[in-house]
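Tip: read the tokens left to right.
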């Protein structure tokens, strides 16, 4: 593909849907399930000389057919240091891109371990993450992405699990300290059985390779792969889903969570404050509608639009700030036009103008409100000036 005479690489997008967490073996299984050559993945790992036995098998988790990646045997040295692992990767018989990505994941993992234990990265003993199966998982995942031609990765909010996990350092809380360090600033939550759902290996891969975290971007999906976890849960299908394709060009087409509650025993002041708290916590929109409830009582319908990964936060706020005892939640599709921001100068000051893809525009309310208060003029006058300034600029 050429753009103005220059060769460009088409974007191959992979969305990682980690609703049951993410581990290295789930990633490799999902990539093979989506079409990555399992024999090529096996050959790449085998070239490391760690003596592992590898197998891919079809299983079911929660009724969903998925691929399970199994690693057994191999060298079981108690401690491995980062230079040793990086040298092993460099000697591997696979592409330079796989070597770069695998090494980057291990460096990221080493940085997290060093921070947790308070030692220089050169002295980090990798313990579990330096074991043969973790090396196989990381190299296998990087090889799988390479085989599928993936050059952009986006990851959902991560279900990290809860409870405790047995490690070389004893019993630790979930998420394990290294996992928590790797996922700092990333969207995470806990749902399902009390166990570790996101492992340090899985966290290291997504923290290193994913460009963004959040809802699925607008895309045309070509392939879907499911990687199986070790256990089969009653609460949800224990699988990692990968969706591969190309960006669709739509500005925004995502799934949101709609949350509703009927309230008939709160004052308008309290409801208004609850709406303010929800918006401040990241709600996409909050509305209050008058309704008539049982026994003829007038009430209010509180409706909150939120990102799926934020629904637990929103639910806690609704229960704490209102008197409702129940909450309805359902998914809805949200389609938003492309929009951009343009600044215009008015006699009162600078105002941002929101411009949609079809050319419609509107001044930013907060900017106009601030200028109206500062200059002592009517809000509608500032907004009219901003509209006129934009119109003149684009005629």
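Filled-in amino acids:
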């Amino acid at each position: 593909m050429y753009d103005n005479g220059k060769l460009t690489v088409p974007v191959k997008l992979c969305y990682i849907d980690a609703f049951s967490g993410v581990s290295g073996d789930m990633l490799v299984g999902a990539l093979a399930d989506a079409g990555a050559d399992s024999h090529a993945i096996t050959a790449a790992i085998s070239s490391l000389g760690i003596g592992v036995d590898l197998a891919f098998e079809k299983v079911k988790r929660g009724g969903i057919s998925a691929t399970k990646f199994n690693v057994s045997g191999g060298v079981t040295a108690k401690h491995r240091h980062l230079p040793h692992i990086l040298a092993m990767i460099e000697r591997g018989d696979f592409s330079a891109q796989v070597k770069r990505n695998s090494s980057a994941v291990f460096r990221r993992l080493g940085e997290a371990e060093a921070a947790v234990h308070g030692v220089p990265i050169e002295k980090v003993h990798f313990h579990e993450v330096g074991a043969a199966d973790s090396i196989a998982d990381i190299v296998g995942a990087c090889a799988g992405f390479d085989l599928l031609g993936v050059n952009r990765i986006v990851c959902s909010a991560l279900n990290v699990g809860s409870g405790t996990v047995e490690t070389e350092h004893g019993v630790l809380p979930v998420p394990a300290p290294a996992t928590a360090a790797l996922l700092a600033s990333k969207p995470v939550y806990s749902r399902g059985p009390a166990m570790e759902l996101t492992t340090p290996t899985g966290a290291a891969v997504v923290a290193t390779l994913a460009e963004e975290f959040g809802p699925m971007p607008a895309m045309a999906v070509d392939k879907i792969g499911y990687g199986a976890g070790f256990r089969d849960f009653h609460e949800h299908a224990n699988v990692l889903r990968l969706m591969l394709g190309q960006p669709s060009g739509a500005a925004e087409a995502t799934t949101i969570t709609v949350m509703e509650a009927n309230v008939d025993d709160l004052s308008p002041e309290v409801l208004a404050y609850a709406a303010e708290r929800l918006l401040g916590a990241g709600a996409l929109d909050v509305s209050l509608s008058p309704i008539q409830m049982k026994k003829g009582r007038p009430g209010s319908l509180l409706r909150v639009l939120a990102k799926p990964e934020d629904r637990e936060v929103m639910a806690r706020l609704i229960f704490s700030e209102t008197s409702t005892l129940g909450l309805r939640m359902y998914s809805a599709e949200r389609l938003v036009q492309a929009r951009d921001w343009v600044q215009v100068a008015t006699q009162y000051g600078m105002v941002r103008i929101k411009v949609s893809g079809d050319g419609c525009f509107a001044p930013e309310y907060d900017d106009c409100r601030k200028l109206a208060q500062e200059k002592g003029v009517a809000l509608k006058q500032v907004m009219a000036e901003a509209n006129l300034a934009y119109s003149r600029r684009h005629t």
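The CA atoms of residues 388 and 394 lie 10 Å apart. The chain is about 35% helix and 30% strand.
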